[in-house]
């Protein structure tokens, strides 16, 4: 199961849009939930008049049987106090549907990085202990960087370290819950800021591709991903000519 | 994040507020949260044929063939001006709710400037229901509103029409919205709606949110 966290810059969600759009995944269902703000629109992955009229809502599930891949896309923010119920419902669905592994795409505030994190790659990963056993070796080979823990009480006591993902939305909650429930979960995240997060989405989805090989990676990988039609006009309508 | 003036502010994030979930909630916090939730509960009150008011837990679901919902002041005013009158329509229900933006009036004799949510039934065909909702239903109340209202209705053979308005400035299009002839109509429809729609469909990337979306 591949899914995003609603996080800074919506990078995880944008990356998931690229995956669904490029692999031309089929919608197989949706979540009827009170945890997300309602929204509805026409098919965001429409390519022609014929397929542009299907309604789309805030939490939908897509699948690609050939790759044994199921993708959940979340399109609106969480309602206050509903993070925990959503995570619990999601994880019990993961267990009951016998999903082997969950990959969560997320992001974290770039301005919260410490001096060392400012250098080098802005991409990080996390694995639950159950998944560490299975794929820890692959991460080493790919030369990926694990998300650093931070001091629980900075300045006072530097020995106690905790996981801190500012701007990550439900990332930390889902990860810690998965650890305690024995679910194999990987978190892939990028440090970023709010703004035009399309490049961040490409970086994250290419990072994911290094591991899962969803598409063939060639030299110029950004051109291999298909941008969905709903990404048009991300920053508003055209400008009135009278402005100039 | 530092602004030009050197002060440090928390950057607003599209991803929503991240101050969530202090894992430990004291009993007092839980009590406060429960009280708040009770205050924010949505109550749907239906009046039966006899005119008596009862709670929304009707034993049997209403038989309903057409349900028209007008959300927002403009849509509600449209129904008041062109459809509703005291001869053909009777009030059969009301929604009571409170949130930071509005509290619904208690009477059914409402002024256009009040916040209210009323249900009407066509006297000549009692399976046609109409809802005028000019109060703002908050995010956390939308699901409840939906479940409580539709929970009372039989869903087979039901056609739902939702009327709502959005500012033209929110409409995303290639040209500037200044030059668009407004107002204009757009529609969204489910696969199951087989009839002709009277206006063009809403183009990507535009979306509908809040109660109409729910």
TrEMBL record, chain A:
Task: For this entry, list what GO says about its biological process.
Answer: proteasome assembly
State whether keyword Lipid metabolism applies. no
Q: Which UniProt keywords apply?
A: Chaperone, Nucleus, Phosphoprotein
Q: Which residues form a coiled coil?
A: none
| Gene3D superfamilies, sorted | PAC-like subunit (3.40.50.10900)
Q: Which InterPro entries match?
A: Proteasome_assmbl_chaperone_2, Proteasome_assmbl_chp_2_euk, PSMG2_sf
Give the subcellular location: Nucleus
Q: Which domain of life is it from?
A: Eukaryota
Its cellular-component GO annotations read:
cytosol; nucleus
Q: What does this protein do?
A: Chaperone protein which promotes assembly of the 20S proteasome as part of a heterodimer with PSMG1. The PSMG1-PSMG2 heterodimer binds to the PSMA5 and PSMA7 proteasome subunits, promotes assembly of the proteasome alpha subunits into the heteroheptameric alpha ring and prevents alpha ring dimerization.
Could you give the subunit structure recorded for this chain? Answer: Forms a heterodimer with PSMG1. The PSMG1-PSMG2 heterodimer interacts directly with the PSMA5 and PSMA7 proteasome alpha subunits.
Q: Which family does it belong to?
A: Belongs to the PSMG2 family.
Name used for this protein in its record: Proteasome assembly chaperone 2
Which taxonomic lineage is given here?
Eukaryota, Metazoa, Chordata, Craniata, Vertebrata
Automatic annotation (TrEMBL), chain B:
Q: Where are the transmembrane segments?
A: none
Q: Does the keyword Chaperone apply?
A: yes
Molecular function per GO? proteasome binding
Its family remark reads: Belongs to the PSMG1 family.
Region (Disordered) location: 13-33
Record protein name field: Proteasome assembly chaperone 1
| Family annotation (Pfam families) | PAC1 (PF16094)
Q: Which domain of life is it from?
A: Eukaryota
Composition-biased stretches, type Acidic residues, lie in 18-29
């Amino acid at each position: 199961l591949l899914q995003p966290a609603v996080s800074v810059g919506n990078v995880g969600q944008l990356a998931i849009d690229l995956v669904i759009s490029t692999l031309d995944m089929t919608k197989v269902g949706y979540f009827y939930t009170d945890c997300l703000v309602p929204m509805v629109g026409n098919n965001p992955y429409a390519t022609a008049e014929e397929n542009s009229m299907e309604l789309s809502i805030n939490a939908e599930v897509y699948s690609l049987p050939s790759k044994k891949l199921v993708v959940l896309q979340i399109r609106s923010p969480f309602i206050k106090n509903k993070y925990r119920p959503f995570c619990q419902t999601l994880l019990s669905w993961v267990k009951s549907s016998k999903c082997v592994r969950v990959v969560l795409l997320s992001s974290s505030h770039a301005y919260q990085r410490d001096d060392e994190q400012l250098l080098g790659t802005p991409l990080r990963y996390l694995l639950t202990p159950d998944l560490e056993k299975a794929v820890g070796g692959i991460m080493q080979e790919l030369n990926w960087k694990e998300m650093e823990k931070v001091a629980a009480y900075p300045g006072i006591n530097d020995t106690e370290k905790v996981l801190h993902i500012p701007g990550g939305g439900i990332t930390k909650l889902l990860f810690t819950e998965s650890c305690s429930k024995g679910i194999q979960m990987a978190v892939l995240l990028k440090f970023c800021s709010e703004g035009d997060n399309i490049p961040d989405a490409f970086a994250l989805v290419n990072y994911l591709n290094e591991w899962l090989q969803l598409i063939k990676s060639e030299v110029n990988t950004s051109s291999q991903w298909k941008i969905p039609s709903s990404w048009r006009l991300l920053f508003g309508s055209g400008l009135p000519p009278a402005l100039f | 994040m530092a602004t030009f003036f050197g002060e440090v502010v928390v950057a607003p994030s599209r991803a929503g507020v991240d101050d969530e979930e202090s894992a430990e909630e004291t009993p007092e916090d839980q009590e406060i949260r429960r009280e708040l939730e009770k205050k924010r509960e949505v109550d749907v009150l239906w009046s039966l044929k006899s005119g008596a008011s009862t709670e929304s837990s009707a034993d049997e679901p209403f038989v309903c063939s057409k349900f028209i919902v007008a959300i927002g002041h403009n849509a509600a005013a449209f129904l008041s001006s062109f459809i509703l009158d005291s001869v053909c329509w009777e009030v059969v229900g009301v929604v009571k709710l409170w949130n930071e933006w509005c509290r619904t009036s208690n009477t059914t004799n409402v002024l256009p400037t009040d916040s209210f949510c009323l249900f009407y039934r066509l006297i000549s065909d009692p399976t046609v229901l109409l809802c005028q909702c000019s109060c703002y239903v908050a995010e956390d109340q939308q699901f409840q509103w939906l479940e409580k209202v539709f929970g009372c209705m039989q869903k087979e053979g039901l056609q739902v029409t939702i009327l709502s308005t959005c500012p033209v400035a929110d409409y995303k299009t290639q040209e500037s919205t200044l030059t668009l002839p407004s107002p204009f109509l757009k529609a969204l429809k489910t696969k199951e709606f087989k009839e002709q729609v009277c206006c063009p469909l809403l183009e990507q990337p535009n979306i509908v949110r809040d109660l109409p979306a729910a």
